[in-house]
Backbone:
């Protein structure tokens, strides 16, 4: 992108000059877009004009200014969606984090929940009703790529929050991440309604705009982690008029309405995206980078070459380049390695033979040499994963030698023999699938070899482009079209096990890609216990009791049920140019609006 193109954008006159100070307050890899739904066209109170709404203003007149500050990053893939109700993957969430405001956010240094669209909030004595008081200087804006101007449409109100949460929960929207809102009263019952055979009343949802700047949210039970859930993209205000007008195309440039630090200026699908600083953002004076130029380079080696050529400002380090980077006098000084709140794992399709046998699943998990993979392939200081949740998550059992699954080749062979395949005899060829990535391919090749050497079986490795892959491994995909084993990662939306074992794997409340079921003739009782535990833990108020529940749930997940094979706990392995001052968040989406460039 020619940065000179943006010379006239950033002289826009600010209508709002005063920024309301944030007040102290008490107290998240993924699916394709869907067709327009009834939920997107039915009139709701959010569509009614309120006293806080204003007439659209004329686009501000551009003026000549100095060269804009431009940051160049690699998204790594095409974002499956920019629709907050439909986003489930980190790529989409990173984009949404910079385009849309949440009720709350996270402090980049402490991971503590902080105000964002909400100035503050209170909670009822019984812990079930949260009342958020919203700022009155946040605006919906639309950027016109043709004229390179901004339109300030109207204020963001509590009715937009009400509409956004309702839209996510409505079954017609088909939000694969709606389950994170099941803590809200009525959300689960509404979301699991069979459409069109059954009916529901959206008024049963515990979300009410009390006035233009006050939103009340009632929970099913007390949940001290709810202010963190309030930060998530699926709970963000959404622009009903844009969704009504453009349907599933409402997120395209020139049509999308946003309210965050940046606006969408360009989106050439499968190629690149451009965001520009929003002059009507209430904290615009604190946003230093004017333009974010985002490419979509899948090959890590190509992206790294662009970094070395000065075309990208920050990038992950390819596995093949780790030794060279560590030894290079310049690159080693730009290298950053630190723990990240993410876990890399392989999931098993538990209703597809031969992985419908728990002993087969255990065998494949035990046969992985996790430390060898880290030492010889990853080389980024990762830790072997014995469980799902990593360190830093409340209720985790990471690295506890008495819990979870650990590498043990002899035990792996015993489990396979118990399943009826001694030394792999008679075991059919299986498919291991991952999304297209050089790094994922190298990991798959290494584990493929481990399984062949330890278990004596044949593994075919396949890959698919990200959005297609996410659709393939959905729990709704016909079992005959599912791979036997598939890779996935999970990063914290908020630092509590409710966001991990419960929201990811509980068949009644989570994504449940492994398809665990109480009807499983082998482990149905264990699945029932897992469901019982994670529901109970989400309601339990005593932290010690909650932690013990999650300890048992982890053991059930990775050993008794063996739904997944945890492989390693992530580290961030990144190189960044010295002129870019950035952070490395561990929860939520990337906050590019907090980064700065000095050169």
Residues:
């Amino acid at each position: 992108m020619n940065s000179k193109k943006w010379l006239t954008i950033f002289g826009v006159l600010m209508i709002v000059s005063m920024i309301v100070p944030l007040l102290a307050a008490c107290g998240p890899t993924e699916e394709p877009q869907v067709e327009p739904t009834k939920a997107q066209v039915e009139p709701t109170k959010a569509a009614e004009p309120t006293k806080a709404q204003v007439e659209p203003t004329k686009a501000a007149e551009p003026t000549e200014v100095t060269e804009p500050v431009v940051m160049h990053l690699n998204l790594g893939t095409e974002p499956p969606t920019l629709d907050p109700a439909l986003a489930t993957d980190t790529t989409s969430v990173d984009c949404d984090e910079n385009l849309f405001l949440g009720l709350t956010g996270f402090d980049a240094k402490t991971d503590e929940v902080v105000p964002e669209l909400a100035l503050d909030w209170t909670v009822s004595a019984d812990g079930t009703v949260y009342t958020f008081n919203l700022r009155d200087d946040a605006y919906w804006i639309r950027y016109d790529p043709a004229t390179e101007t901004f339109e300030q449409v109207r204020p963001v109100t509590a009715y937009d929050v009400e509409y956004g949460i309702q839209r996510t929960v409505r079954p017609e929207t088909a939000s694969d991440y709606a389950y994170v809102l099941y803590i809200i009263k009525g959300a689960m019952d509404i979301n699991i309604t069979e459409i069109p055979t059954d009916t529901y009343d959206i008024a049963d949802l515990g979300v009410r705009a009390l006035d233009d700047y006050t939103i009340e949210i009632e929970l099913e039970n007390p949940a001290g982690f709810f202010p963190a859930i309030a930060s998530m993209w699926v709970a963000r205000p959404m622009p009903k008029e844009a969704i009504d007008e453009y349907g599933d195309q409402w997120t395209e440039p020139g049509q999308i309405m946003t309210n965050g630090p940046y606006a969408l200026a360009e989106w050439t699908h499968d190629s690149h995206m451009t965001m520009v600083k929003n002059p009507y953002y209430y904290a615009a004076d604190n946003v230093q980078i004017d333009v974010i130029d985002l490419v979509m380079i899948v090959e890590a080696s190509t992206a790294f070459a662009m970094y070395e050529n000065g075309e990208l400002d920050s990038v992950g380090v390819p596995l093949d380049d780790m030794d060279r980077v560590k030894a290079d006098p310049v690159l080693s000084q730009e290298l950053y390695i630190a723990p990240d709140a993410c876990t890399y794992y392989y999931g098993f399709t538990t209703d597809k033979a031969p992985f419908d046998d728990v002993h087969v699943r255990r065998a494949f998990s035990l046969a992985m040499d996790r430390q060898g993979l880290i030492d010889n392939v990853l080389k980024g200081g990762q830790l072997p994963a014995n469980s799902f949740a990593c360190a830093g998550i409340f209720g985790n059992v990471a690295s506890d030698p008495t819990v979870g699954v650990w590498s043990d080749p002899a035990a792996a062979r015993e489990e396979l023999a118990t399943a009826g395949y001694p030394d792999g005899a008679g075991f059919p060829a299986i498919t291991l699938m991952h999304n297209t990535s050089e790094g994922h391919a190298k990991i798959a090749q290494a584990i493929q070899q481990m399984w062949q050497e330890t278990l004596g079986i044949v593994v075919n490795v396949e890959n698919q482009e990200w959005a297609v892959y996410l659709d393939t491994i959905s729990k709704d995909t016909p079992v005959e079209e599912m791979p036997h084993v598939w890779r996935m990662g999970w990063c914290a939306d908020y630092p509590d096990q409710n966001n991990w074992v419960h929201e990811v794997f509980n068949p009644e409340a989570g994504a449940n890609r492994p398809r665990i079921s109480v009807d499983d003739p082998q482990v149905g009782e264990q699945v029932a216990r897992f469901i019982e535990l994670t529901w109970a833990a989400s309601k339990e108020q005593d932290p010690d009791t909650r932690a013990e529940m999650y300890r048992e749930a982890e053991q059930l997940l990775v050993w008794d049920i063996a739904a997944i094979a945890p492989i390693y706990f992530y580290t961030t392995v990144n190189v960044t140019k010295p002129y870019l001052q950035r952070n490395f968040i561990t929860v939520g989406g990337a906050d590019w609006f907090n980064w700065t460039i000095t050169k």
Notes: Confidence is low (pLDDT under 50) at residues 1-60.
